[in-house]
Structures
1.
Amino acid sequence: MLLMFEDQHKEHLSFLTQVSPDVVKEFCRISMEFIRKGTNPKIFQGAAQKLNVDVDTVHHGVEGLMYLLTESSKLMLNEIDFQDSIMTLGFDEDTRQTLLEIYLQNRREIRTILSEMTMDLPHYHNLEWRFDVQLASRSLRRQTTPTVLFKLHTEDSGVKDTTILQTDPVNLLHLTKVLDEALQEMKSPYCRRIVRNIK
Amino acid sequence: MKFRFCGDLDCPDWVLAEISILSKMTSIKMKLLCVQVIKDMLSEGIDYEKVYKITQDAKFEIGDVKASIAALTFILSSAAKYNCDGETVSNELQQLGLPKEHATSLCKSYSDSSDRLQAHLRTTSLRLSHLEKTEWRVDYILSSSELKEVNEPCVQMKLHVRNPDSGTTTPVSFTVDMDKFRILLNELRQAEKMMDNFT
């Protein structure tokens, strides 16, 4: 599949068609640094002075490159598709080669960075438990009531939270039975068929 | 295969896999590593420099170092949890394939420190909150905006409660008048008597 470029994007990248392949390589390196660590506007100033152009043009050029690389990595374009997509932008042969090399070298890393940015739900971190027996209370002396106390630690995008839960042993048995059945569901023929088809 | 040190359950697969890695070092190095792991479990801090020096001779990679620390932590903590004696642990580890000298040196370290480990595990068991300090003051109310002559004693209480997750201590303050305070004190005395019956 081919990437479709918006006009604004093409405009931003048109600046790169006018410079030499070494400059394009330098820009690619800057874009990769920005994808890894975040943008640094001071670098734009330096580059703009060296090339005698506006800071904005440099800014747009680098951002256009970053967008090109992340979109191609996201869609997992193969070599031919990538080359066909950038054909329409008007780069010369060397620049296209450079861009292809940078794309192939870095796409795995970009995909790892992108996968860390997905939406996060609160997920399991730790579970502590304690088995108690209630022997007496203000209202009733001489009882023996077993209870189980849980502290569930969950984590949601870096923020840890704890939930306190309490249950009696019968409920706990039922809970473990239901969760066990959920695990066994993975081994049912229906789930196996689906997993086989995904792979 | 049921193992006492795993609480009469199967030994986890990953521990079985790590036994072969642990067998690669000499039993003296194993003893030194056990000492470091026990220090870590008692929250006294682990000296990673020493650990690297110990594992360098056996040419462990970083993954192997992490795996061996994890396996030793599991074996020692679950042996302390299920209150096994050193002899049983030694026999069962030999059944799993750990060489005799390694098993004996590990069990010697375990027996030396099992009391401290169990005491530490007892303090880190699940607790909802800790009562740090109680402060009290007896006041005598002379009059108020509602009634000119009140002439009643009352008790102001401040309890400092520590949350074990965050470590912060929050003060809980409340005031109790005379009759309610008598009832409170009486009930608490009855609870104390009941606790004494059980110890």
Note: Chain A has a mean pLDDT of 84.
2.
Amino acid sequence: MSYHKPDEKTLQALKDIANKLRIHSIKETCASNSGHPTSCCSAAELMSVLFFHTMRYKANDPRNPSNDRFILSKGHAAPILYAAWAEAGFIKESELLNLRKIDSDLEGHPTPKLAFVDVATGSLGQGLGAACGMAYTGKYFDKASYRVYCMLGDGECSEGSVWEAMAFASYYKLDNLVAILDVNRLGQSEAAPLQHNMDTYKERCKAFGFNTYVVDGHDVEELCKALWHAEQTKGKPTAIVAKTFKGKGLKGIEDQDNWHGKPMPKDRAEELINDLLSQIQSPNKPLHPQLPNEDVALADLTPIRLLTAPEYKIGDKMSTRKAYGVALKKMGDASPRVVAMDGDTKNSTFSDIFKKAHPDRFIECFIAEQNMVSVAIGCATRDRTVSFASTFAAFFARAYDHIRMAAISQSNVNLVGSHCGVSIGEDGPSQMALEDLAMFRAIPTCTVFYPSDGVSTERAVELAANTKGICFIRTSRPDTAVIYDAGEKFEVGKAKVVRQSDKDQVTIIGAGVTLHEALAAHDQLAKEGVNIRVIDPFTIKPLDASTIVANARATGGKVITVEDHYKEGGLGEAVLSALGEEPGIVVHRLAVSRVPRSGKPQELLDMFGISAKSIVAAVRRTFAN
Amino acid sequence: MEDYHKPDQQTVQALRNIANRLRINSIKATTAVGNGHPTSCCSVAEIMSVLFFHTMKYRPDDHKNPNNDRFILSKGHAAPVLYSVWVEIGFLKESELMSMCQVDSTLEGHPTPKQQFVDVATGSLGQGLGVACGMAYTAKYFDKSSYRVYCLLGDGEMSEGAVWEAMAFASYYQLDNLLAILDINRLGQSDPAPLQHHVEKYQRRCEAFGWHAIIVDGHSVEELCKAMSQPRHQPTAIIAKTIKGKGIPVAEDKMGWHGKVLSKDMAESVMRDIQSRILNSNKRMYPASPIEDAPPVSLRNVRMPSAPNYKPGEKIATCKAYGMAVAKLGRYNERVVAMDVDTKNFTCSEIFKNEHPNRFIECYSAEQNMVSVATGCAARELNIVFASGLATFFTRAYDQLRMAAISDSNINLCGSHCGLSDGEDGPAHMGLEDMAIFRAIPTATIFYPSDAVSTEKAVELAANTKGVCYIRTTRPETAIIYNSNEDFHVGQAKVVCQNKEDQVTVIGAGMTLHEALAAAEQLKKERIHIRVIDPFTIKPLDAKTIIDHVRSTRGRVITVEDHYYEGGLGEAVCSAIVNEPGFTFQRLAVAHVPRSGKMSDLFKIYGIDRDSIAQLVRKMLSSSANAK
């Protein structure tokens, strides 16, 4: 096939739309008296060609699974995205003037409150990773013809996560992915480091395996042509590096410093708009987007249940990380929608058990945790898949900004962190997650599972697959005994009382390794005739406050929490928050209070005061008081 | 230009011998303790030998000598080979090496600064090069000295974006004193690394990022010596093609050997084999001495020479006060440096830049790298570093911050635009989890100043406080509430408003402290008096002041914060007052992902404004009246 230049009328119509988008962007940001009109103007021709020439989608059904996807990674250009959907007819032109208002869904940066937004953007450098997840899904899971377009700013090309995504896209030959770089030279507080050095951008994109075109970003014909070539290119993703000018079309403002994030002054807006209007030749020539090939089935939203109950016997010894791998594989057996990914730790997190059973549904993301989380989010958009991404719990710290944004994106990703706490032993503090509960608790849409044996891990995985919002499952390295019957039922927000008697004098709340330490303390104290109650919270968020309060009362108001985590933001503080106003309850907290070190797991549990020994001592202390 | 002299055969053999001894010790130690990554050590044996016994200039008996070349082992899991080098030098005893990773050893599984020869902890991959950039920047632009910085990376970690942030930074700032060695041993942990042995692809990527890149056989000491001696006008990457497990026949270039130790029997036979390759050479290798041209530096007692120059009632944003304070501190100590991520006009660090342009580093939109550069600049107590960005974007660098604590780093960070007060920009830009993550850093001190006077004091205190300091600033203008001569201390709260008849204690900070003061005014009209406390530091929190005052308001306390419920001010107070009998505690915080809108509307919607506070005070009083 060879390229046919669009006719002059079409080209003029695309130019006209670009200027209309500029006018909308100016009006919107003048109305809100904030926003980034100059960052919109540099992208006007790009948006016009993408939305009215290249992309195939149903303008009245933005979430149609067959539609091409568009991700505005440079989220601060939101007004021009809204303008494009106004031109496409999905939103009313008058609504545009409610930009950034408290009762409008047209927020300062795009969020999925809007049907045409799949992932929230606004924290720079995250769009391309999500686009990779969508493109991977389109190519390998949906095996469909929809394509994925992601527009980036030049400032955000300084973010490492962009290059993680670039490497991923070429490694997996995502030829259905196009990255459009709006190189408008100027950042927020000064010029971007590469300015208009187009060759350097080109070399970087090519070195990272992209089919790359450098174009004049204000020339609609060049854009049409490059985007057409992108579609013909097989085996490689395409980068369109567009040389543009920030504030293009705005006299006296174009390519000038100090205009980032500033609406046009009220007294100049009219003149600027009139100037743009004068360049529009046929204001009423509508262009309609091409319709997509309808080759994608609607998402199957039926709950995914384990086909068989867990196959563990009480007393069996296994790590919860291994139980995760087994459970994930079983969920994969139950539904083809379950997909998994890892950051080159699959033999440690045991996601390789899933990979062995379902190789076509496993994505190796290599050592790029930020990108892995973005890919997981991308895969989960439009409910195309139920994604589980795993690595060491500590390394989710690397992707915390992405996880934070996932909440704003209303994403349903499931994240699984192994090797939590000091109980990993010799590898030392750099590999120990001791802040992950604090991190995930502070994500508003998050459910935090902290299973303590094989059975509860398997149920956590099943529940996570069917729970909205972000789910985090914290798994441990050491082997621990199975404590629940295979038929035991688990629910989000429902704790288990693991040991109890009528004579219990203290309630101990532990999870994972420390639950087993609590059980050991229970046995030891029982020999001395002291009875303690032991609670497994199962989920740390939401925490089962009523079970905890009731049991605390039954044990004279005495509670001890013990956790393989720092003292801040983890299980202990979650319990304190849950107990809130309850009078007469005394809580002692055992947690790691300083940067730990290498050593044998048991030695470290002792050294940092969260072992059975420490619990026994704490129980004795509460009696002494 | 330096002329390259090929090392003589004796030197070459001596370097090969050292490489093989490093292999033997790495295998011996990991087998002895049953833990570690011997195959990842074996691929770098020649690289380490050439670096430490031929290329680098340093005083082996004086690790912290400021003139020494620096070395960062970014692939921290190869720690045993680093320790073996120091055994070879004679600084460590072999017996110490054989008990590494044990609970009483300072030789940990991954390097930490418990060892003098380690400046920063590594082990979370992809972080070493950014730190190396900070050190190289310091050498070139602050110390103006000739020491160089060497960073050894693995190929697996080249997938981390943080590496490419650092690559872009190094070339942008022409760090020709920085040399990165890439150990391309093909194999990752669970799979081959994505580019396998395609060294030309690595070269192309490095060159595109502005580096001089040389491909060598990583097991040829001659090639390594030559490449490392090349003159440099830009940062240099030595792309060393190596074999993972080199010298261990069963493991060489084989999957399934990452992080696996050899059995005792196997280790003995392998070590015998390697030993047989060590040829007699009388030549002892000594590192060359460094050029002594680093300036003396003292960071002691960095004080503001004068009190803050603000008048009560004056209105100024704490983010602006931060910029002014750092600029002022910079006037009196030339080792105060600042950096930002292209947000300097928001965080107001541009005030510092305008006054001290040579001590400001623009890091562009690369938050991970900025924190690493800050850590590198602060290493060996060479600079007092203030790095700023929007509060919420420190989430991007949380792994680097976590590692900064393990590194015993003394960096200072300032996050502006916290909370809902960012308004129309919407949730993507609102820091609502920053206190939670900084509280969970064991070495952190968290300042949350509520006016310009206390912001200036916070900056001065942060400069003199060990560990990671975080200053949370706010965008809107707020009134000055403290006198210029007010004394501030870490861990000391201020009672901002009190009266004998106070019935409830309200604790707020930043914007919410001002909302609490407004609520106090409002309630006064109803003859309800409240006590208002400014905690000043959230960590450590002044538990004593809080408990004393809550007691005197009959145990009633309310916290109000522009942050999510979890991990912030409320939970900090909760932790501080737990087990105090008779306290009634209520919290106001943000419970959901927020949205765009005017700050005042958002404060109302999410219930952290003056009306919400006043209402909760009334409710608390009426329910306690009912209880009677």
Note: The longest strand of chain B covers residues 556-564.
